[in-house]
Structures are given as C-alpha cells and as structure tokens.
Predict the 3D structure of the following.
Amino acid sequence: MVRSLWTAASGMIAQQNNVDTIANNLANVNTTGYKTEVAEFKSLLYQDIQAKTTSGNGATKPVGAQVGLGVRNSSVSSRFSQGNFYDSTNDLAFAVSGDGFFAYRGQDQNTYYTRNGDFHLATYGTGLALTTSDGNCILDTNGKTIEFDSSIVASKITVTGDGEICYPDASNNPKPMGIKIGLWQFNNPTGLDKIGDSSYAVTGASGAALNEDTTQGLTKSDLRQGYLEGSNVQVVDEMVNMIVAQRAYELNSKAIQATDEMMSQANQLRR
C-alpha cells in the first residue's frame, strides 16, 4: 500500500507539470510567433513480484508479475505548426509561411532564431539596422547584420516573398538593394532550446541551421510583409486538455485517500 502512495504522488506531480504547460500555452495565446508546447510522459521502472519462470509448484511460468511504480514527465516539446496571420501597422512586420526561422545576433554575439517578425529600424554605428523589438540585429542570407544608410525611410521599404529588400529609386520604382532577409530551417526543430521571447538556440538534437538560400532540397518559405504570425495555440484544445489533466490529478488524489483509509483499517485490526 505504501507503494501506491508514491505511485499516486508521482501521478499528481506529473499532472501538475502538465497543467503548468497548458497554463503557459494559454498565457501566450496572443504572443507573436509562439509555438504551443505539449507535456509528454513515461512510466517509471517496474518492480518484479514474481519471475516469469517461477510458479507455486515449480512449473515453468511464461508470464511474470510486475507492478508499475508511477509516471514522470519525459519532455515538454513544441509543436511547430503554422500560426494564423494577422495585420500589423508596422511597415517592417513580416510573417513566415513555411518552416523557416529568422535569425538574429544576441547581446552575447551568438545567433538565435525566432518566428517573431515584428522588426524595427534602430541606430547602428553611423547608419541604421534592421532589429528585433529588443534591439538585436537581424541577419541576412550571408549571416551578416542588415544595415542601411541613415537616410532610409522605413515606410518605403518593401520586401519580396523570397526576402529580397527593395527601395524606390528616383522614379519611385522599387529596386533590389542586394540584401535578402535570411531564413533558416532545422531537421528537428523540436530539439531547439527555448530561451524565451519566442526565440530558440541550436542544440545537437535540432541539428545545424540550414540556410534556405544555399541548401539544396529545402522547400523555401514565403515572407508576407505587413503581417505577423500569431501563436498556434488552440484555446478549445487547451481547455479540454486542462479538464483531462484536472481529472487525472483528482483520480490520483483519490488513490492516495483510498490507500490512507486502507492503512488506517489495517492499523485498527489489532484493536
């Protein structure tokens, strides 16, 4: 019976982590570029009560007796399905249609990746640079910061579907500036390390970043200027998942109460 206490307790802990994950999804339902997370579980080790070859009369027994010892969270993985697009008043807002990620250079000079395309122009050296809302420089297809002359007007910048940045000439016709916004893909995006702010870092599990402009065989993404990609959180699904997690938590607590009552009755047998 003591075993059942620990088993049910492990279930309550696992479901609490599940509810925490669901709550985080709901909290980020309006976060640009956020990808919903799913808690996954695995069973703990089993305890052998009777071996497969043991029986009461010594005969061969093909099936043994094992009792499970509970559950634990194995991982919390992100689901990188496409989020809905919505209009933005920002002239430098971009949504990615496809599997690509934007890249930016962090304050520590490392490269990070994001689906949040809410960009801005910020002072950089003697000119301007395309940056995230936190001031981190966006990278082009060559892995270099995207810089402009200080006379550039943000509202006049246009970007083609493949990321080519254009600016009007003297005749007010958009002309390519020779700069393309970089987009990268990963063999296993679920393996990316979540660092907050809808950003990710490369890990051994994710594999190296694959440049869409230079890597053969990739299905290239499409950029939509004037739009942002919302989170892919489905509120109804999350509410259903929360109800299921709550019921599972309640059932485990009932198992603890039942075990407590059984132990109490066993202690009273001698009276």
About this structure: The mean pLDDT is 90.
